[in-house]
Design brief:
Blueprint lengths: L1 E5 L4 H14 L2 E5 L5 H13 L2 E5 L2 E5 L10 H6 L6 H9 L1 E5 L12 H9 L3 E5 L2 E5 L8 E3 L5 H11 L5 E5 L5 H12 L3 E4 L5 E4 L8 E3 L4 H13 L3 E5 L10 H6 L3 E6 L2 E5 L9 E3 L11 H8 L5 E5 L8 H8 L3 E5 L2 E5 L8 E3 L3 H13 L5 E3 L1 H4 L6 H7 L9
Parallel strand pairs: 1-13, 2-12, 8-9, 16-17, 20-21
Antiparallel strand pairs: 2-4, 3-4, 5-7, 6-7, 9-11, 10-11, 13-15, 14-15, 17-19, 18-19
Helix pairs in contact: 1-2, 1-4, 1-7, 4-6, 5-6, 8-10, 8-12, 10-12, 11-12
Bound molecules: ligand EPZ.
Length: 408
């Protein structure tokens, strides 16, 4: 693969930011919004709530002045597990919310106990019955000190959204530190919120009277960047990756360099990756909360290691069921053994193309990375998972010399 790849806007930034727009009751213009199905589902939720929305050429315009509903229908909640993020936004915007429990997803059970316990500490009345969450904040949420038992990304975002208009000060400790959290904070502060954060996972939110609309550009998608880099590394490519924030992928760069890739930063938002004829990977990779190795990069990076000399050991510490892509990689001839949270990958000479099935978003990306380096043709079904998070991935890969075709 040769040429240039431009990275899309961040899926995991745009979703909480679009939810946050309903608190502004004003017009917000969001640039660099990725054209992915999760954004289209969020657009449907916003329109159901009574917002005016427009989305084209990666610009999302939403006006939540006439927001009128505080509930999200089951079918929309079920389509996107992260729609639980609307709970904090609706409570701040309307004082109440009625959502169905998000239920599990492809990665295993997706509990929300940290969200619920923290909301209750702020005085939110939550009634859980028949798979529904009915929430009401009475005369308003009260700021307080909340120590998360785990730095949950979604719970951190939800409690930030619930605190921006609360009475007094909310201090979140052991909060998630992912770049997408910082992006949400920057957006909210541009809307008039008063949020400070430290790099030790403490976030201080001073409740304000109201938020106003703004214009904002979301950060690049760090997981998409890592995915394309894994594709380049697996095919001995030489590609410029544009529109990145190198700090946000710093935990993964050493893995590419140790595997024999030359990574040259070009300027503060692009780098060139030159891969060797054969990769080498003999490494223990543990997924951890940011700034550790990201769980979302586990599958694409594992696909890259399947044809690297050496043995790589993955420990998936974040989700209980995030190895569904292993069975499909085995069908391509990979040598992987899984025991509970641990996956041991012995590099093989080459994979061979086959028909495989994507079962979750990053697993789908892993199958593309593997298929690009396999001998012969690989046919991947389950593209609805891929389309949730990757904008025009086949077009992007073809531009740098891959042969990827979507067959309806
Ligand atoms: C966000 O999911 C991301 N999704 C995920 O990306 C990402 O993998 C994850 O953070 C970790 O970085 C979005 O931002 C839309 P968590 P989230 O709450 O918020 C447990 C992708 O591929 N937990 O940090 O759901 C939970 O079960 C997606 O882009 C509780 O036990 O992640 C999991 O094991 C997949 N109780 C762990 O914490 C809770 O109340 C991390 O979950 C909440 C979470």
């Amino acid at each position: 693969m040769e040429g240039e790849v431009k990275i899309q806007g961040s899926k995991n930034s745009i979703l909480p930011i679009l939810a946050a727009c309903i608190i502004c009751k004003d017009e917000c213009i969001i640039h660099n919004c990725p054209n992915i199905s999760d954004v289209h589902i969020t657009k449907k939720i916003l329109e159901y709530l009574g917002c005016k929305t427009e989305f084209e050429n990666n610009v999302f315009v939403v006006n939540s002045k006439n927001i009128s509903k505080n509930d999200i229908p089951d079918n929309l909640m079920r389509k996107m597990r992260s729609s639980i993020i609307f709970m904090g936004a609706l409570v701040s915007s309307l004082g109440s919310a009625c959502l169905s429990l998000p239920g599990g997803c492809e990665l295993g059970p997706r509990p929300i106990d940290i969200h619920i316990d923290s909301f209750r500490q702020m005085g939110l009345k939550i009634n859980e019955r028949h798979g529904k969450l009915k929430c009401d904040c009475g005369s308003g949420l009260i700021g307080c000190n909340i120590a998360f038992s785990f730095p949950s990304v979604g719970a951190t975002e939800n409690l930030i959204l619930a605190s921006v208009l609360a009475k007094g000060t909310t201090i979140l400790t052991n909060a998630a530190k992912e770049p997408e959290i910082i992006d949400l904070i920057h957006f909210l502060n541009k809307c008039g919120a008063d949020i400070k954060y430290s790099h030790n996972g403490t976030i201080i939110i001073e409740g304000v009277e109201r938020l106003h609309g703004t214009e904002y550009t979301v950060i690049p998608d760090r997981i998409a960047a890592i995915t394309y880099m894994a594709a380049v590394a697996s095919t001995s490519g030489s590609v410029v990756i544009k529109n990145i924030v190198e700090d946000n992928i710093s935990s993964v760069i050493p893995i590419f360099e140790e595997a024999g890739c030359i990574i040259n930063p070009i300027d503060k938002c692009s780098l060139k990756i030159d891969a060797p004829a054969r990769l080498y990977c003999n490494r223990l990779i543990r997924t951890m909360p940011y700034p550790g190795f990201p769980t979302d990069a586990q599958a694409p990076i594992m696909a890259m290691t399947t044809t690297a000399d050496g043995t790589s050991v993955f420990v998936e510490n974040i989700f209980s069921n995030r190895y569904k892509h292993v069975g499909e990689l085995l069908r391509l001839g990979a040598d992987i053994k899984v025991e509970d949270k641990v996956a041991i990958v012995e590099g093989v000479k080459r994979l061979s193309g086959a028909k495989v099935n994507a079962m979750d978003l990053r697993g789908a990306a892993a199958l593309i990375v593997a298929g690009l380096s396999a001998e012969g043709t690989t046919e991947i079904s389950g593209l609805e998972y891929l389309d949730r998070g990757y904008e025009k991935i086949e077009e992007t890969l073809c531009k740098v010399g891959a042969y990827v075709k979507r067959v309806e």
